[in-house]
Design goal:
Distance between the termini: 43 Å
CATH superfamily of the largest domain: NAD(P)-binding Rossmann-like Domain
Order of helices and strands: EHEHEHEHHHEHEHEEEEHEH
Oligomer: single chain
CATH class of the largest domain: Alpha Beta
Number of strands: 11
Number of domains: 2
Largest sheet: 6 strands, parallel
Helix content: 25-40%
Structural class: alpha/beta
Shape: globular
Mean pLDDT: 94
Low-confidence stretches: none
Radius of gyration: 19 Å
Length: 303
């Protein structure tokens, strides 16, 4: 039986540490970290994600603002809002919930967020810093995956890591993180995508396989190596008549069959998802410290 990597447990540990640090920051310097989330339209999945972020802020003691914007908003109006948040001293982190409606020029919106408040690491400046190994703040999901591995005892250093998916949110930034000459990295990283011809051969050679391809239960047991570690980033809704809501959430990995072959595996839900939220909170806290002159790089505030 494989070890189930518990993202809920690890994320709770991080949030508890943050709660103590936020409390100390407020007591010693009368500073409260602030996060603004901008939600355009009424995408049901986006609403759920925003609600989860609000809840996490409340639990930790981070000030939060939610800006609900009509779906018909123009790019110019959205950029105007973000510029006002850039100037706000109460706000240290800004997150624009993706995806945006088709009429919005997403790149222009992302570039309007101040790099110092870009807690999702989407701004081109921050992406460039990440690539050269000197990030301002790491992207939340990739950083959560790295933390999940390290806190579970699976250091990627020296391992062959295979990533399925080359998105700007997970695949490419995770590749950039794990290939760096740094603690918790130093891996040999292979990035697979829709045009990869020998995918099964590559995934079967992975010491650590990370699936972020967006296809329900795509990774089967014959695609993984015995005693490897599998991290499932996928969140897919599939029809299920036996479920109360008529659907269930599954990952990109055929969990039930793969778990019997590998050393460790993360579940969906309860794996990467909670870690993404925890790292967003950590980035917001560190952004606050950077903007108020209180951070030794990489160190949690301790009074």
């Amino acid at each position: 039986m494989s070890f189930i990597i518990d993202g809920k447990k690890i994320s709770l540990q991080i949030k508890n540490e943050l709660r103590a640090a936020v409390s100390a920051l407020k007591k010693d310097r009368n500073i409260i970290p602030g996060l603004a989330v901008v939600l355009v339209g009424s995408n049901p999945a986006s609403k759920v994600y925003v609600s989860m972020k609000e809840k996490a802020c409340a639990e930790i003691g981070i000030y939060s603002e939610k800006h609900l914007i009509d779906e018909a908003v123009s790019t110019e109006k959205l950029v105007e809002l973000i510029k006002s948040l850039n100037k706000s001293e109460k706000i240290h982190g800004i997150l624009v919930q993706l995806p945006l409606p088709k009429q919005i020029k997403a790149e222009k919106v992302i570039e309007s967020v101040s790099p110092s408040k870009d807690v999702d690491c989407f701004h081109p400046y921050n992406v460039g810093r990440l690539l050269i190994g000197s990030p301002v703040m790491p992207p939340c999901t990739p950083a959560g995956i790295q933390e999940l591995l390290l806190k579970s005892g699976f250091n990627p250093e020296g391992r062959h890591v295979v990533i399925l998916g080359r998105s700007n949110i997970v695949g490419k930034p995770l590749f950039s993180i794990l290939c760096q000459k740094a603690i918790g990295a130093n891996a040999t990283v292979t990035l697979c995508h829709s045009r990869t011809e020998n995918m099964k051969e590559l995934t079967s050679s992975a010491d650590i396989l990370i699936a972020a391809i967006g296809k329900p239960q795509f990774v089967k047991a014959d695609m993984v190596k015995i005693d490897s570690v599998v991290i499932d980033v996928g969140t897919n809704r599939v029809n299920d008549k036996t479920a109360e809501k008529g659907y269930k959430i599954v990952g990109d990995v055929d969990f039930e069959n793969v778990k019997n072959k590998v050393k460790a595996i993360s579940p969906v839900p309860g794996g990467v998802g909670p870690m993404t939220i925890a790292m967003l909170m950590k980035n917001t806290f560190n952004a606050c410290l950077d903007q108020t002159g209180g951070r030794n790089r990489g160190d949690m505030y301790n009074g």
